[in-house]
Specification:
895 residues; alpha+beta; Neutral Protease, domain 2; Immunoglobulin-like; 9-stranded mixed sheet; aminopeptidase; Peptidase_M1
């Protein structure tokens, strides 16, 4: 919506609806130009709310008829809201019939009912249903739905909606119909329909209960062979959720449909999930290991919503993390449980934390900072954020840490016993967890734990230690603080689980005991920090330990601790906790990067120390460490993460320093990289399992480093080998890794490889997205990337209105390539402002996501800071901005 005075919605203003909708009978006559929608509803007054008019939400609808109990009635339109005042008195149900039309082919927002490549799709979360018919478009209104679809049989042979197919047949004039009935009540945001020429992969399964279910994945003709992995992921998800949490599939059939035009990753509509093709289609020839992993994760996520989001949903949109944070946690647990090896589980945990630190921590520190249960919003789509999802998942993970794995399962069971079929709040969930575990720290300190839901920002845990050799005691003082965020100056102490261990200089674990009269705690223990300052004293500590704090990243906090290089090297070499082992390497690299960035004059030519290089060589050559773990340790902290550690950011200097570090690491370990590539490049027939994927990842990193070193020494050997590896590759991962090695190292052979790649895959949209993104995200050398991006936008394959394609070029440049985006001449910012305005004209959701690229402009050094503000102001001055973009820009400019 575009309004002169956007309305701020406040959580404290929540009021129950004045009417309930019990049943909805929808009939669609589908036509891309003019779709007719007949909406027959049975409503009743809410006896707990004072009598008032019925106000139904609508947007871009053509109203043709309104009937009350079969007769005409009076109504009015208040803007786009349909208002009915003279409704029957009392609590008896009444029938309301509304006939409207809409134009799906003109719906470029991809919200509501729209057409993509000749097929009808819907996207109703959060407020898209009002673009289909007039309705109480809010999640706490749950109704039973029956849906009849009619369309031309030749053009739209497949007609799908939520629930069970109860009737289908032929109509006159070459048309046909299908009637679907959903056996479960649902809010309108979970409504879905699909109509088009599609083919399906079908699989019947029998669950633990002995019931048979039909699983289906619908795609466009020609894509069916790319759905095997998604189907396997769906089967594994069904099995896992019933085994881990006792949550069975509750539908006769479960359907997934893929479309290339989708604003999000996927949508959990009850029984009819609609997916971005990116998270369904995958074959060894066209998808990388990362793609296969993402498909498994997203398929799991949307399936798990069937209970955590569908069977129990949100009372209002402020409670969004109730379903999203919980379900992200569930999909993370699923992905880890799918890993056969403990090291693979650790790699998954590290990957999740990297996302949190590089995306959510900056959000927490920026103008769009909000709690996982916000207090206000202007446009709800702006709060489908990493805070709601990823930080929300970390809060759920802390719940499991505090109550235990079994206690968490019991809490989830109680949650469904109390609230199945209801629209509830975050408080309802956390109360169920506490009530199911009455002796847990969560239950004892529930009000304090709830601050995670109400306070924004990332807490900092400060750790100071003192060892008393005479007393053989080790005191650890932990304190916490949280910086002010917009609208929240003072922060109350959080309840923070801090998992830790102590190791000696040789890396051996030290037994833990708090006080001489306390029981032994083993070598791993979780402390609960619930005050501003607390001191914990461990006894019977024979030698000065090295602390390993925040193991497994037990809380979404920044750990401030002074550890010497020697201590970090000890943890890197010996820590039994894989996360902290990785973290030690990251801290060493980050320390060296910040020293170089802060140094006077030109960045040092060799910022990496000999000790660091020796440690990395040891990791790379280590015979027991998993290849995927090695790849993570040997990957330097990102430019974005380095920038977040600084008060004033010079993006070009950070870029220069990190590139110098990469080059030094490439040259110093040249022989080791050669060994690693040769040892890991051959993996037999392609399998997307964690072990094989890890080997390919390490081989890919090694090849990149060898090509980078070749650029510095001028040798043609390894670029030539990379090109040959590209040509000979038997799967997309190896092929793309070779292409990445050439492009990211600036090798002349990259252009030949890019041309070959495009020729090979020009008919595959998802692969060409990779081709675009690789070029837009390449390291900037002499300001060459922005001109390349502008040229890519003129390419015949570029389509601005396709979200995946727009993201592949524009987002890869503006959001993911800081060294190229933050230019001294401000041309990157000008480009950004042009694209935000252009996108906002037809797809506000995508535009608002792009608008977030300059969230952290106030941290920038000059001249970037002033230039960034001018570009933000340029967008703000554009009349008729969407609420989506207006909210982001307004908050960004706020002092």
């Amino acid at each position: 919506m575009r309004e002169g005075n956007p309305v701020t919605v406040r959580r404290e203003d929540y009021a129950a609806p004045a009417y309930w909708i019990d049943t909805v009978d929808l009939s669609f006559d589908l036509d891309p130009v003019k779709t007719r929608v007949l909406n027959k509803m049975r409503l009743r007054r809410n006896p707990d709310v004072p009598a008032q008019a019925l106000r139904l939400d609508g947007e871009e609808l053509n109203l043709a008829r309104v009937m009350l109990n079969g007769a005409g009635c009076s109504f009015k339109l208040d803007g786009e809201t349909l208002v009915l005042e003279n409704l029957p008195e009392g609590n008896e149900p009444f029938e309301l019939e509304i006939f409207t039309t809409c134009a799906p082919e003109k719906n470029t927002q991809l919200m509501g009912l729209y057409v993509s490549e000749g097929t009808f799709f819907t996207q109703c979360e959060a407020e898209g249903f009002r673009r289909i018919t007039y309705f109480l478009d809010r999640p706490d209104v749950m109704a039973s739905y029956a849906v009849t679809l009619r369309a031309d049989k030749t053009k739209f042979p497949v007609l799908l909606s939520n629930g069970n197919l109860v009737e289908e047949g032929e109509l006159s004039d070459g048309r046909h119909f299908a009637k679907w009935v959903d056996p479960h009540k649902k809010p309108c945001y979970l409504f879905a329909l699909v109509a088009g020429s599609l083919v399906s992969r079908n699989q019947r399964i029998t669950t633990r209960s002995g019931k048979e279910h039909l699983l289906q994945i619908y795609v466009r003709p020609g894509d069916l062979e790319k759905t095997e992995h998604a189907m396997n992921a769906l089967i594994h998800s069904v099995i896992w959720d019933e085994a881990r949490f006792g949550l069975p599939l509750d539908l006769e059939r479960f359907m997934i449909v893929a479309t290339s035009d989708f604003n999000m990753g996927a949508m959990e509509n009850k029984g009819l999930n609609i997916f971005n093709t990116k998270y369904v289609l995958g074959s060894p020839a066209t998808a990388t290991d990362v793609d296969f992993s993402n498909i498994e994760s997203v398929v799991g996520h949307e399936y798990f919503h069937n209970w955590t989001g569908n069977r129990v949903t949100c009372r209002d949109w402020f409670q969004l993390s109730l379903k999203e944070g919980l379900t992200v946690f569930r999909d993370q647990e699923f992905s880890m449980d799918m890993c056969a090896e403990p090291s693979a589980r650790a790699v998954k945990r590290i990957e999740d934390v990297r996302v949190l630190r590089t995306a959510q921590f900056p959000e927490d520190a920026g103008p769009m900072a909000h709690a996982i249960r916000p207090d206000t919003y202007v446009e709800i789509s702006n709060f489908y954020s990493v805070t709601i999802y990823e930080k929300g998942a970390e809060v759920i993970r802390m719940v499991q840490t505090l109550v235990g794995r079994d206690g968490f399962a019991q809490g989830l069971k109680l949650y469904f016993e109390r609230h199945d079929g209801q629209a509830v709040t975050c408080d309802d969930f956390i109360q169920a967890m506490a009530d199911a575990n009455p002796t847990s720290e969560l239950a004892r300190q529930l009000p304090q734990f709830k601050r995670w839901y109400s306070q924004a920002g990332t807490p900092v845990v400060h750790a100071q230690a003192a060892y008393d050799a005479a007393q053989r005691s080790y005191s650890l003082t932990l304190s916490q603080s949280c910086a002010p965020t917009p609208g929240q100056i003072q922060k109350e102490p959080y309840l923070i689980p801090v998992t830790l261990g102590l190791v000696d200089a040789t890396g051996a674990a030290i037994p833990l005991q708090l006080g001489s009269d306390s029981p032994a705690l083993g070598s791993n223990h979780t402390l609960v920090l619930n005050e501003t300052h607390q001191t914990f004293t461990f006894v019977n500590v024979e030698t000065e330990p090295v602390p390993s704090i925040l193991r497994g990243f037990s809380a979404p906090v920044v750990l401030d601790i002074e550890l010497s290089d020697a201590q970090l090297l000890t943890l890197l070499a010996h820590d039994s906790d894989a996360f902290n082992r990785w973290e030690a390497g990251q801290r060493l690299a980050l320390r060296l990067a910040l020293t170089a960035v802060r140094a006077e004059g030109a960045p040092p030519a060799q910022p990496l120390s000999d000790a660091y290089l020796d440690a990395m060589r040891t990791v790379l050559r280590h015979p027991q460490l998993d290849a995927a773990f090695k790849e993570l340790v040997l990957t330097l902290p990102s430019e974005t993460y380095i920038a977040e550690q600084l008060d004033v950011v010079d993006p070009q200097r950070i870029h220069a320093v990190r590139e110098t570090m990469r080059e030094q690491l490439a040259e110093a370990l040249h022989g080791d990289w050669e060994w690693a590539f040769d040892a890991h490049k051959n993996n037999g027939a392609y399998q997307p399992d964690a072990t094989s994927a890890g080997r390919r990842a390490l081989a890919g990193l090694s090849l990149t480093m060898l090509c980078l070193a070749a650029r510095e020494n001028g040798s043609p050997v390894w670029p030539g080998k990379a090109l040959q590896h590209f040509k000979d590759a038997g799967n997309m991962t190896d092929r793309f890794n070779a292409l990445l090695a050439l492009v990211s190292s600036g090798q002349p052979l990259a252009q030949d490889a890019l041309a070959r790649f495009h020729a090979l895959f020009k008919g595959d949209a998802l692969v060409i997205d990779k081709w675009f993104a690789l070029q837009a995200g390449a390291p900037d050398r002499g300001g060459n990337i922005l001109p390349a991006v502008r040229q890519l936008m003129k390419h015949a394959d570029f389509q601005m209105k396709n979200p995946n394609r727009a993201r592949s070029v524009i987002f890869s440049y503006c959001n993911a390539n800081p060294g190229a985006f933050h230019r001294n001449d401000a041309a990157g910012y000008v480009f950004w402002s042009e694209r935000v305005i252009e996108l906002d004209a037809f797809n506000p959701q995508v535009a608002a996501r792009l608008a977030r690229a300059l969230d952290r402009w106030k941290k920038l050094a000059e001249p970037y800071r002033t230039a960034a503000r001018e570009s933000i102001a340029r967008v703000a001055a554009k009349p008729n901005l969407s609420n989506d973009v207006r909210e982001v820009i307004t908050r960004s400019l706020a002092e």
